[in-house]
Design goal:
It comes from Plasticicumulans acidivorans. It holds the Pfam family HxlR. GO terms for molecular function: DNA binding. This is HxlR family transcriptional regulator. The protein has six helices and three strands; from the N terminus they run H-H-H-E-H-H-E-E-H. The protein is mainly α and 137 residues long. The chain has a single domain, classed as Winged helix-like DNA-binding domain superfamily/Winged helix DNA-binding domain (Arc Repressor Mutant, subunit A, Orthogonal Bundle), CATH 1.10.10.10. Strands 1-3-2 form a three-stranded antiparallel sheet. A hairpin with a 5-residue loop joins strand 2 and strand 3. Helix 3 packs across helix 6. The radius of gyration is 24 Å and the shape is globular. It starts with 5 loop residues before the first helix and ends with a helix.
Amino acid sequence: MKNAPAAHLITAEKPPEPAPPWNAYAAACPTRLVLDRIADKWTVLILGLLLRQPLRFNALLREIEGLSQKVLSQTLKRLERDGLVTRTVFPTVPVSVEYAITPLGRTLAAAMHSLVDWAHANIEAVLAAQRRYDGDA
């Protein structure tokens, strides 16, 4: 092995990790479903409230200022379809509906919690940057 080529003596580097099966930059990528969901402010607020406890439709509507009944209904349907919340109907007059976060929804809410923490920690810097940009500083 004295005369072995130098290339043979070079230690192999760690092979590159395989590419993920989805390309989030492609329009047809299913990953965008999740990105669209967490980009929606109502989703973030609804999941945050449901982390505390299951809530009825009207309680959610009262808690989240600026949220319309129509948008709440649409958002809850999407969250239920995605497996992030469950909907339980109670046979009362009128019918009552309660929403609860699922284990899958909890994992998403935990990931979003880091973003909320970042927002709380950095809101003053963001507002100052906006004032500077707008010429109000």
